Amino acid sequence: MATSATVHAHAAPQGFIRKYVFSLDHKVIGIQYISLALVAVFVGMFLSLLMRIHLIWPTAVLPLIGEIKPETYLSLLTMHGTIMVFFVLTTAPQSGFGNYFLPIQIGAPDMAFPVLNMLSFWTTFVAFVVMIAAFFVTGGAPLHGWTGYAPLSALTNTGPGEQLGADLWVISIAIFCVASLMGALNFITTTLDLRAKGMTMMRMPLTCWAWFITAILGLLAFGVLLSAGILLLLDRNLGTSFYVPLVVVNGQVMGHKGGSPLLWQHLFWFFGHPEVYIAILPSMGVASQLLSTFSRKPIFGYRAMVYSIMAIGVLGFVVWGHHMFMSGMSPYSAFAFSIMTMAIGVPSAIKTFNWLGTLHKGRIRFYTPMLFAIGFVSLFVSGGLSGPFLAQPVLDIPLHDTYFVVGHFHLIMGVASIFGIFGATYYWFPKMFGRMMNESLGKLHFWLTFIGTYAIFMPMHYLGMAGHPRRYSQLTEVAYLHNLIPVQTFMTYAAFVTIAAQLIFVINLFWSMFKGPKASDNPWEATTLEWTTVTPPPHDNFGGHTPVVYHGPYEYSVPGAARDYVMQTDPTPVTAH
Amino acid sequence: MGLALLVIIWLITFASTYFFAAKTWWLPHGVSTAAQWIDHQFALTYVLMGIVFLAAQCGLGWLVWRYREGASSEPVEYSHGNTTMEVAWTTLTAILFIGLNLMGSHVWASERFEPAKPGAVPVEVTGMQFAWYFRYPGPDGKFAKTNPKLMDPSAGNEAALGLDTSDPDAKDDVVTGTMYLPVNREVDLTLRAVDVIHSFFVPSLRFKQDAVPGLAIHMHFTPTELGEYEIACAELCGLGHYKMHGMVHVVTQEDFDKWLAAREAEKQ
Q1: Domain membership flag for residue B74
Q2: Which of A99, A160, B141, B151 is least surrounded by Cβ atoms within 10 Å, i.e. has the fewest?
Q3: Residue B233 lies in domain
Q4: What pTM was computed for the model?
Q5: Dihedrals φ, ψ of B202, to 5°?
């Protein structure tokens, strides 16, 4: 393992371009990914702000934006979903933090394939530019939602935005898939081949396990989405009929026949459900790491945690049909998908139990990263427990495609993942930039975001129970929605406060980068390998030597040890337990 | 900080639970035979998940407060976990989740595995951007052929569906923009869509099913109370998705027959 690490070592670059733009250094590439995600998350958040404003004040004319028409609203929600899922939730926790810290945490000098790594970032960047371009072409951005259900997405005359905008949307996703496949290969190879001496698989931090399994999910899922996207492009532009049967749009008989709209849904969700775990697993890993570190206690049930990640990974591929209970798919298969979906709740519950077990009889230090880890657990529970409702086909009859679903996936896949990303940022910032972030601003950011996100997303469950369908640009046409407008108003105000609170984070981030107090090499008194090297780490991560690992990742409060933590590289034996 | 977390987590938990428990917003009053079974399964799931929710959130709040670092904190328990507890927890969760699922499965089976019984009222529902059309086969009980080339959405009703008037079965086919159903009789529904996917959602009837181009999806339900109920489209179908709504009028058998006869007469 250690020998192959030297094969790919490359000299530190000198010029600005090679050092910061087309860099081969996994740390620079990690920061590039995180920066891209930071830009993307603000674009995505801005789009959601416009949607929230439009729902409450449908006729408002906004400065610079103008009036938001029904089709504009649908473009906003399509682009919000797509940008958040691909360019934030997939990009930041996996490609961003994974790139920076996977090699360091396993004691490697870089990723296995540095050139491929650089290519995968720049390919992702191109995908983002193409996606944003969809706003500026004739007809604007597509209105078919982030799930792009055919035939709405497969024809060019089903609505504004379904012309060039929709083509750009598909092309961007296809490019993103290629980038993700390159990244996944790199992560898997790095984890398997570049671990330092003594770093057995079962001594890897849970973050590394999460990145590793996520990469495998990505490798299997993005290939399918890429193929599905290419078929969609063919249907749209070359007159094929993969997804389109004989249809009549606005009195005009289209030239397609024999295609299956459900085929798209099967292919899309075969990617789409593993994608949910691609977004959440890295944050689960981060939460585990932070809860153990700041409770000064070994993680409860390390092995169970590893097996849960694997079980979630495997089961994640056999539950996609639970998105399709109302689609016209065979009702018998709904039965099977439902059982598998309930089964995937079991490893998720084990993880929650173990997080609570880690806190139990610990000595909890409330630094900002820990607050976000605790918030993550709370949100994971809240978002997770609406899952068993939606996993039952019979309850999908009232709940499917309502705000109940929107509340569910925002809490668990959106906000919980984002809390993992925030936790990771506050935790690793000192290692990345050599300075500490401001704790007071960090705590203020946490409180406003924690309360704010609950205020936005919890009421969505009530709306869903009352039968409020999602993706409605105006609430005036259906009479039973009128009573629900006050709830929507409350959520819009909560969104204003929560979005404003994110500016505190950005200010803290950039202020601390230049003005924060200098960080020591191991400010949190943590045990994993990134804290054994200097801050910030040198080009080859460990300054010319390769670390040797003697312990598991979370040896805190070991009886008889000199300090309340034993680093993974500390040769002192830890007594059996 | 530990106390603040405890207070806020508990407050959020109790506030969220209150609005569920007080049924401030809840499923609308159900008016079909399936409603009581669906609502029962919903309530059961809600109670069980509610207990887990309260236990987990309150436990989290209590743990972070109880084990906060301070001058008087006890030494940390050095432990890597407890296999017995892991196994117990896994088993319990598996029983709870899978059991809950199985308890609801008979409702699903009765709604979706069996076709409508003989004697049910046949109605065809067709979704198109952005309207619902309802077709009744008339006294002959047969739906006539439709022809995509004849579809003219701007003309509405029969013409919108492209009803092929050369088919003798077409004479007594009635197409309307409002759905009428007799109370306490099973409805044999055929769902179609002509352009993109739509979803026929009637919250009060606890009914939802996508209408998919290229498919004729057969469903059934039985309305149990007289009244007018709103239909909302529940699958994104384009810019008019939000206004693709309609009404179901559940009337007595007598009124239904009268209404249908009037529509037949209008057509002649």
Answers
A1: no
A2: B141
A3: 121-267
A4: 0.96
A5: -120, 95
